[in-house]
Write a structure and sequence with these properties.
This protein is α+β, with helices and mostly antiparallel strands. Helix content is 52%, strand content 11%. The strands form 3 sheets. A 4-stranded antiparallel beta sheet has the order 7-6-9-8. Strands 2-1-10 form a 3-stranded antiparallel beta sheet. Strands 3-4-5 form a 3-stranded antiparallel beta sheet.
Length: 504
């Protein structure tokens, strides 16, 4: 079982190497007066032209703002969509982004990174990135195959095309390179196994497996048991050590503990976990798996890859995403569950907002730009057939009628709802894949839906909406408080011309 896992791990690394191998094949700034300025304006020559705001050591670029604007525009489900909503504007969204940076800054200051579970998640992320970087740097240049090798492979198996033959050769060579390199690392760091502690690992494993402190339905060890049922002394039982030299001058000896061993076990899905952990041999085999990542990471650090700027940037971004999520989870605790009376009163005042089944059946002509859309509309107004105009102008030649609703159209719904069956609406904008494009829309059917009476389903929808309103208000209030605490500045000249509906 362990050997199979090791081979699987090696294949994963080889797959990464092959991917890496294949991957290998502004306007001038005028800094305006910052909005709500809390620090002196940075001189134009000192500030890159694509930076639209600063918040401490964070910067927000125009590209990041435009990406966020597009995200804000897309509808997120009927219950969270207001048909009367206007398009978001750049300044409002930018202020929201700056408030989120302030939340992250505050979370760092409050020590959220010290949380054991969160810290472990960050460590795993960094280690995976670091080991991948090591393999990319050290093995990718060697992962090549010659044209003659490819031809020979295809000759041996006529069913293979060139791409498949090349991939198979690289996979085989990559596995061999990885095995050789890992063996060198293993020897370099002088791994020592403390076999006298293996029987203790067997006993503790059997205890957690067969005699959990609290009843569990699953017939396997759960992650919470590692945290709650192992004593500090048991967690720190050393099963192996390694260092860069037999007697490291700096005393930098890395220990692989029983907790590391159990963490490795829990990384596997229960059906694939070893069945022989009731023996010292089984303990040793799993220990080999537990050694792999620490050894690769140590090798990467010895070569200085842990200082890689792109790696550090990715780790910082991962931390920020996690911190923001954690802050929002903490703020969710302030939400008060709406009462039945509050739910019924809100529904009574906003029944129309919970109308269901409102749909349009439409057919589309997607156009590259406004000029093209106007030409298409003119030909349709002149009596041309809709299908022939589509074939002439549309980005999508194979179109067919479909049903759409407010949840799919977002702020563009109101433009379509004005039309009646057989009307040709447009040019109007709409969501085209991940962009916004001009289109001509033929209205085929119009279903107004209906407002349902109070029911358990309506109660749930109203409750969700009231909770979301509370959440938004709590986060907005918290963000405003932090913006008074943490300095920031915005460069108005760089955002004044940003039109969310016209982002390339």
């Amino acid at each position: 079982m362990t050997k199979l896992f090791s081979n699987k791990l090696a294949l994963i690394f080889m797959g990464l190497l092959i991917v890496f191998c294949h991957l290998g094949a502004a306007r001038a700034q005028t800094a305006g007066e910052p909005i709500r300025q809390r620090q002196p304006v940075v001189k134009p020559s000192a500030e890159p032209s694509n930076i639209v705001a600063r918040a401490g050591d964070y910067v927000i670029t125009k590209q990041e703002l435009e990406k966020r604007l597009m995200m804000e525009l897309y509808p997120r489900g009927y219950d969270s969509y207001n048909e009367q909503a206007e398009p978001v504007d750049a300044e409002t969204v930018l202020m929201k982004m700056i408030a989120e940076k302030a939340m992250v800054r505050d979370a760092r200051k409050l020590g959220f990174l010290k949380d054991e579970t969160f810290g472990a998640s960050i460590t795993r992320f960094k280690e995976r990135r670091l080991s991948n970087l090591l393999l990319q740097k050290q093995l990718q240049p060697k992962l090549t195959v010659t044209e003659s090798e490819i031809k020979q492979k295809m000759k041996a198996d006529p069913k293979l095309d060139r791409a498949r033959a090349e991939a198979m050769l690289k996979n085989t060579k990559g596995r061999r390179l990885y095995d050789q390199y890992y063996k060198q690392i293993y020897q370099k760091f002088h791994v020592k196994k403390l076999s006298n502690n293996f029987p203790k690992a067997v006993q503790i494993h059997q205890r957690l497996l067969t005699k959990p402190k609290k009843p569990r339905k699953a017939p396997f060890i759960r992650i919470y048991q590692i945290k709650e049922e192992l004593t500090p002394e048991e967690k720190n039982i050393v099963l192996a050590t390694f260092s860069a030299s037999p007697q490291d001058d700096n005393g930098k000896i890395t220990k692989i503990t029983l907790k590391d061993w159990f963490d490795t076990l829990c990384e596997s899905s229960p059906p694939s976990r070893p069945r022989n952990l009731n023996t010292p041999k089984g303990v040793e085999q799993l220990l080999e798996r537990a050694l792999r990542m620490p050894l690769l990471v140590s090798e990467a650090k010895s070569l200085g890859f842990d200082k890689d700027k792109n790696l550090l940037k990715k780790v910082r971004e991962y931390e920020d995403r996690g911190l923001l999520s954690k802050v929002k989870s903490e703020k969710d605790k302030e939400i008060k569950e709406p009462t039945i009376d509050e739910i019924m009163i809100y529904f009574g005042k906003n029944m129309e907002a919970f109308r269901t089944g409102r749909t349009l059946k439409i057919d589309l002509i997607w156009c590259q730009d406004l000029k093209t859309a106007r030409q298409a509309k003119a030909e349709l107004d002149g009596g041309k057939d809709f299908e022939s105009v589509r074939q002439k102008y549309s980005l999508e030649k194979k179109g067919k009628p479909f049903n759409t609703s407010p949840s799919g159209e977002g702020l563009f719904w109101k433009d379509l709802w004005k039309g009646d069956p057989n009307d040709i609406v447009g040019p109007v904008k709409g969501f085209y894949r991940r962009d916004i494009k001009w289109r001509i829309v033929k209205i085929l059917e119009k279903n107004p839906g209906k407002v349902k009476g109070y029911s358990s389903d309506i109660e749930r929808r109203v409750k969700d909406r009231l909770v979301n309103k509370q959440r938004d208000a709590i986060l907005a209030k918290y963000g405003d408080e932090l913006l008074k605490k943490y300095p920031y500045k915005i460069y108005t000249e760089k955002i004044k011309d940003i039109d969310p509906l016209d982002i390339p």
